[in-house]
Design a protein that fits this description.
The chain contains 7 helices and 8 strands. The longest helix has 16 residues. The protein has a single domain, classed as Alpha/Beta hydrolase fold, catalytic domain (Rossmann fold), CATH 3.40.50.1820. The chain is α/β, with parallel strands linked by helices. The chain starts with a helix and ends with a helix.
């Protein structure tokens, strides 16, 4: 009976888009350097990347990375994986439970639960700096990053959204800083209908937003990814 009540409470938290875990002193120093699965799902597992410079006594910045529609954890890592060692970044890529993120289908729930589980496993095996946690995404992943980043601004102090289509936060917590980029010739998610509407909304709500438009399509150019990480490093 008590377990059923607890499960209902957890479900309610996830339906509200809220993540419950927070960085802690690692209790299971099992993570090795490089790319590794978390072992949470046999078919769509989360991937953790630990940079070569990582030291367990020096908490490192973490970026939660979210793929676009139809993507996977490997694809989600693409914008930052080649830059992680130089920046000393821990990367965590969590794939959606369906082809895209739960909010795209109407409600928060299973993806929030899996992200929470993935973060819990990550925090248990690597030391993360609580002042340097970002959520990043591309396309549908960018929309989800904006949505859960604002809803969990007391966990994520930075949000990086590459070519978002929308945002649907369930609530507002904290004051995360936000980086958004979008291609002027994007033929998948029109810049006029998406970022050029989203950015003013965020600014009116009082968020600190850095916005970069580029000459290109629905992609994350290398220089834009580098610019986002430079912004993350100094803010």
């Amino acid at each position: 009976m008590i377990r059923d009540k607890q499960q209902k409470q957890y479900n309610l938290v996830y339906e509200q888009g809220r993540l419950s875990v927070r960085p802690q002193q690692p209790t299971n120093l099992s993570a090795s350097y490089g790319l590794q699965p978390l072992g949470l799902d046999a078919h769509r597992d989360a991937l953790l990347y630990v940079p070569k410079s990582y030291k367990s006594d020096q908490p490192a910045p973490l970026v939660l990375m979210l793929h676009g529609a139809g993507g996977n954890a490997h694809g989600a890592l693409a914008p930052f994986l080649h830059l992680a060692d130089a920046q000393g970044l821990i990367l965590l890529a969590t794939p959606s439970r369906e082809k895209s993120w739960d909010i795209v289908y109407g409600d928060y729930g299973p993806d929030i639960a899996f992200i929470d589980l993935s973060l819990e496993k990550t925090f248990s095996c690597v030391a993360v700096d609580p002042a340097r946690i970002a959520v990043e995404g591309f396309s549908d992943g960018a929309s989800y990053a904006l949505s859960i980043g604002i809803t969990n601004g007391d966990l994520f102090n930075h949000i990086i959204a590459f070519s978002p289509g929308f945002m649907a936060p369930a609530s507002q917590y904290g004051e995360p800083r936000i980086f958004i980029s979008h291609g002027k010739s994007d033929n998948i998610l029109s810049i006029d209908n998406c970022s050029r509407k989203i950015v003013p909304q965020l600014q009116r709500a009082g968020y600190d937003v850095v916005y970069q438009e580029f000459n290109g399509f629905h992609t994350v150019p290398t220089d834009i990814a580098s610019s986002a990480l430079e912004w993350f490093a100094v803010r």
